[in-house]
Amino acid sequence: MKKLLSIALVLGLTTVVSAKEADKPHYTASVVPKNMTVAQKKARFYALLVPPVEKVYAELEAEYEAAKKDIKNHTNQKKIEALKKKYKAKSDEELLKRMKPHPKSITLAQAAMESAWATSRFFREANNVFGVWSSNKNEKRIAAGEKRGGTRTIWLRKFDSIEDAVRAYYMMMSRTRTYKQFRELNYTTDDVYEIVKGLRNYSERKDAYVKELRSMIKYNKLTKYDK
Q1: CA 70, CA 220: separation in Å to the nearest integer?
Q2: In 4-39, which positions are buried (b, 16+ CB within 10 angstroms) versus exposed (e)?
């Protein structure tokens, strides 16, 4: 079978790629193509989000498995103590609960909801995938369009990349007291529809938010990314 090839110049080097790969759309976070169909919007979202989510998850899972092994074998105690400080954990068990990364399906569902499938202003202008607020005036951030209560300016963090945003999100979920139940569920079950119960306080919509997350995961078959 004759194969179609196209030549791409990357950093001054000649790279041979298939015509099929060359024809794939190239997406950027800051640019949202006009008149996209729902299918095209989702394709753009997955192209932008899946690679960084999978990369960060793999890093966190490897770190978690290594810590679990060290705790079991009573090895690398200085490393474990440093991790406890990083994750704000007081015991070995609490450390593992905080370090275990939650399923990618949940991450992608929240990313889709919080960024309007990677089209929101916060996503386009700040790589802010998860609607993370900022209370530190010294960090990069942008102001929300509407003031809370009509008077208070809401600031959202600005990230250098989508990968940085995903990494910060996982750390937030690992260390914030609000998500203790979420971490407990993630540590004791692999059922994503049970784990999302712990995200009730992520949004002011409470139970309605959890219900929508479940529907998002199920309808878009996001659990395939957990396998």
Answers
A1: 37
A2: eeeeeeeeeeeeeeeeeeeeeeebebeebeeeeeee
pLDDT in tens, 34-74: 999 999 999 999 999 999 999 999 999 999 999 999 999 99
Q: Coil, helix or strand for 191?
A: coil
The whole-model pTM stands at: 0.88
In a domain, 22, yes or no: no
Structural domain boundaries, residue 43: 39-115+161-226
Beta carbons within 10 angstroms of residue 57's beta carbon: 19
Residue 130 to residue 205: CA distance in whole angstroms: 15
Residue-wise pLDDT tens digits, 188-215: 999 999 999 999 999 999 999 999 999 9
The reply to whether 178 falls in a domain is yes
Residue 213 lies in a domain: yes
182 exposure class (CB count in 10 Å sphere: 0-12, 13-18, 19+): buried
Q: Indicate whether 2 belongs to any domain.
A: no
